[in-house]
Design a protein that fits this description.
Layout: E1 3-5, H1 7-14, E2 28-30, H2 32-45, H3 48-56, E3 60-62, H4 67-79, H5 87-98, E4 102-105, E5 116-118
Parallel strand pairs: 1-4, 2-3, 4-5
Helix pairs in contact: 1-2, 4-5
């Protein structure tokens, strides 16, 4: 099974969370939007140099964020507006579904949705 790695999952892998051990050697498929979110998160917690070093440890495979995926993601987000999901999380979730991948995340907001592998 292929996984789409949400920002949450990638950060947990970088931090060495043992719950994500089984995923760390898999292809890390995500979007450039998630990459940006990861980089920003790393910058907040360290220096630019350390953030760059951390990202070099991961072999990313980027998947295109298409216009139909963006539209569907915003429809999904609107339908779930009470949960207040982030744009990037919605982009990833729908991109995963459209590409027959499981959405790998530890974000509690997605734990009850179909097509999600939830790992805390």
């Amino acid at each position: 099974m292929l996984y789409f790695f949400d920002t949450y999952a990638i950060i947990e892998i970088l931090q060495g969370n043992s719950a994500y051990e089984q995923y760390k050697d898999m292809p890390i498929v995500t979007t450039m939007a998630n990459f940006g979110e990861i980089y920003y998160s790393l910058l907040k917690g360290s220096t630019e140099e350390l953030a760059d070093e951390s990202l070099q440890k991961i072999k990313f495979q980027f998947i295109e964020l298409t216009q139909p995926a963006v539209k569907e993601a915003m429809q999904f987000r609107y339908k779930q507006k009470i949960i207040k999901l982030s744009y990037i999380d919605c982009f990833g979730y729908i991109t995963a579904k459209q590409n027959n991948m499981l959405f790998l995340t530890g974000d509690q907001s997605f734990a009850h949705f179909e097509n999600v592998e939830f790992v805390k």
